[in-house]
Specification:
The structure holds two protein chains of two kinds. By secondary structure, chain A is an alpha/beta fold. Chain A is built from ten helices and eight strands. Chain A has a five-stranded mixed sheet, covered by helices on one side. The chains are: A alpha/beta, B alpha/beta. Chains A and B meet through helix 6, strand 4, helix 7, helix 9 and helix 10 of A and helix 1, strand 1, strand 2, helix 2 and helix 12 of B.
Chain lengths: ~270, ~425
């Protein structure tokens, strides 16, 4: 507040960019901020967002053409990986990540050469670091997804990742399980990705299959599902070498927040 | 298939296989073929981690733990009174496929006790791999144990289905092998390694000319040594490892800290702690040799045949070579930056990339996630106002040790040096 008064009346007002929460929407917001020369911006999702007291609101209308133009400009100055990192930061859904992305994009556009390896610059490093965090969780999901087979031959899995990594891993599962129908459902964000042996599609549904119960398994699952889960649990405990126990390392690699959907970490049903 | 019997078999045969530490599923790229099952990514995936902190990437089992040999260090030795079991070919295939489909594993690591003859055993292993690849169009990762003494034809077939093959040398020296496994000789494992090396190189050359040529063990071969069962020094162990890397083109050498499993007087008693720290130091040294450009004789030598347990081998090298420091990260070569304690391979590359934009200061390094408290003793600092103290190597070691909190601290007691 003090800073604001101090700067008054010379400072330009901050603009709150209110966008629909999509990546394209955010890119459109960036386009608009350049077009209307808004230098000091913050980002808010959804129409009901509370606008900060000293900001003016700008309602972003998501526009594919504008979004594409921003991407095109970024492509000229960034490697494919650099551009991808930006998308990963978007998927992080962490607080202030949009502002972080914006600082990065502005830096990208102010320089002629590719700056993505200027790691001593915090706009670059912050994006790199958060993108890495998202990538790590995506890799963890490639590891920790556990499918269950239903009676009608659908392999389904539930996840609750910290970041919205499902779009990052769908391609991996499509390539790997090309001959089985599968559904991976993000219980936190209430949507899933479904593969029908041909294509991927996003499905939004209330998935009511909570953590496994003995009754649930016999009702909806394939007759051998319980057996393979049991077998996997037994395998998991048999390969442990007790003389080398190291729970700290175990938990570091397999954080407790993921245990809920891992049959090997669940007590026997 | 009777479920309860399969569960029991899996418990026996996974338990018997767990002392083989290799669990890598990387180094092979196998695309999904004709919309079949699975693919293999070059980077490998660890699907779970057991309570001992080790990764579970593959279904690692023995086909059987019946064995005609009586190697003292092995839990499946003939004279050991353990439950025995054997899987059928169909059972292994069924469990592999069903675990894989549920995303429990990256693939199969199949080994076996030697029953009947090497050829008889190897033929079963190959049959399982073949069934997975041909009948089930399975493109996941397969690691097969190459059984010493098996025919060249079977070895060759194995290489065409498997991503990786391995022959375990088990004991770092011939002397130890003679002591603990009198029926075996080092030459028995060197021969198949040489054969595999020849085939791997041959097929790779062919593939370079013709992309459609079949791949032979595309993830290469690996081996394992048991550490701490016998009296070898780290110099002997690392020397042997270096021989495998140089002469056999090994992808990996694994070090398996001996877990006491026997009352045999030739071996450490049951209850002796597993040499976990020593094993860890050996892996660190192995990494220095493979990725950091160190030579074995820079890490261990006749004056110091064993690695320090209380500090890592890179710090140990730096402290013995303080004349090479301080290093100015703004001008030094990548190779030299990699040698600074606290700066890893990846961070060294980042430093070299970032310094093109502007001069790097300590605060930049701290932000970039470098272990600055460790590295600072070895850096030439560009700050005009900071005072670089000249510490001795002992002072540096003490200061760094005071910063780390290892749960193994008690094991580093200097008393150890007396024995």
């Amino acid at each position: 507040m003090l800073i604001f008064l101090h700067n008054w009346p010379y400072s330009k007002l901050m603009t709150a960019m209110i966008y629909d929460g999509t990546y394209q929407g955010w890119l459109t917001a960036i386009f608009d901020s350049y077009e209307y020369k808004m230098n000091d911006v913050c980002f808010l999702k959804g129409e009901t967002a509370a606008i900060p007291l000293f900001a003016t609101a700008h309602y972003v209308v998501t526009d594919e053409v504008k979004a594409r133009r921003v991407i095109k400009g970024l492509k000229l100055r960034l490697s494919a990986e650099g551009l991808n990192n930006l998308y990963k930061v978007y998927l992080s859904e962490e607080e202030k990540s949009e502002e972080m992305m914006c600082r990065f994009v502005r830096y990208v556009f102010t320089s002629k050469e590719n700056i993505e390896q200027n790691f001593s610059n915090s706009a670059v490093w912050d994006v790199k670091k958060l993108a890495k965090k998202v990538k790590r969780e995506a890799h963890r999901m490639e590891a920790f997804v556990r499918f269950k087979l239903t009676k009608d031959n659908l392999f389904y899995a539930i996840i609750e990742p910290d970041h919205n990594v499902l779009p990052l891993v769908a391609g991996h599962f499509k390539g790997r399980y090309a001959d089985q129908r599968w559904l991976i459902y993000d219980a936190k964000r209430k949507y899933g990705i479904y593969y029908d042996l041909e294509t991927l599609s996003t499905v939004e549904l209330e998935f009511r299959l909570g953590p496994a119960s003995a009754k649930g398994i016999t009702e909806i699952c394939d007759e051998r599902e319980a057996f393979f889960q049991e077998l996997w649990r037994k395998y998991f405990s048999s390969v442990n070498i007790k003389a080398r126990n190291n729970m700290r390392l175990h938990i570091q690699h397999m954080p407790k927040r993921y245990w809920k959907y891992l049959p090997e970490k669940m007590p026997e049903i | 298939m009777v479920n309860s019997r399969v569960i029991e078999k899996l418990e026996i045969l996974a338990d018997a296989a767990k002392y083989d530490v290799s669990c890598s599923s990387s180094g092979s790229k196998r695309n999904n073929k004709d919309k079949g099952l699975g693919d293999t990514k070059g980077y490998g995936i660890c699907h779970a981690f057991t309570e001992d902190g080790r990764c579970v990437s593959l279904l690692k089992i023995l086909l059987t733990n019946h064995c005609i040999f009586d190697c003292a260090y092995c839990v499946s030795r003939k004279s050991n009174n353990v439950k025995r079991a054997a899987f059928t070919v169909e059972e292994v295939v069924d469990v592999t496929i069903n675990f894989y489909r549920r995303n429990y594993i990256e693939g199969l690591f199949l080994s076996s006790g030697i029953f009947d003859s090497p050829d008889y055993t190897m033929e079963r292993l190959v049959r399982i791999a073949k069934k997975l690849r041909i009948d089930h169009n399975f493109n996941g990762y397969i690691h097969l144990k190459a059984i010493p003494g098996a025919s060249d034809e079977l070895m060759k077939e194995a290489g065409l289905y498997a991503d990786r093959l391995s022959v375990n040398v088990e004991m770092p020296t011939e002397k130890s092998l003679k002591l603990l496994a009198p029926e075996k000789k080092h030459i028995d494992v060197i021969k198949p390694m040489e054969y595999l090396k020849k085939e791997i190189i041959g097929y790779r050359e062919e593939k370079a000319l013709n992309r459609k040529a079949p791949a032979f063990a595309p993830a290469g071969q690996s081996t394992q040594m048991v550490i701490g069962a016998t009296k070898e020094t780290d110099m002997e162990i690392l020397g042997m490892a270096d021989y495998f890397y140089q002469q056999m083109n090994m992808k990996r050498v694994y070090y398996s800290g001996y877990v006491p499993i026997s009352n045999d007087g030739r071996l450490p008693m049951i209850g002796t702690p597993v040499p976990i720290i020593r094993e860890n130091r050996l892996y660190q040294a192995d990494w220095l040799i493979r990725f950091y450009g160190f030579r074995v004789n820079e890490i261990v030598g006749f004056d110091q045949p064993d690695l320090d347990l209380d500090i890592d081998p890179k710090l140990g090298w730096a402290l013995r070579n303080l004349d090479q420091f301080p290093v100015d990260i703004n001008t030094a070569t990548l190779e030299m930056i990699k040698r600074i304690p606290g700066i890893g391979h990846q961070n060294a590359k980042k430093i070299v990339a970032a310094r093109k934009f502007n001069r790097l200061l300590p605060e930049h390094l701290q932000k970039m996630g470098i272990a600055y408290n460790r590295a600072k003793y070895f850096l030439a600092v560009p700050h005009p106002f900071s005072i670089q103290k000249d510490f001795t190597s002992i002072q540096i070691k003490q200061q760094i040790l005071s910063l780390q909190h290892s749960k193994y601290n008690a094991d580093f007691s200097s008393q150890l040096a007396l024995f």
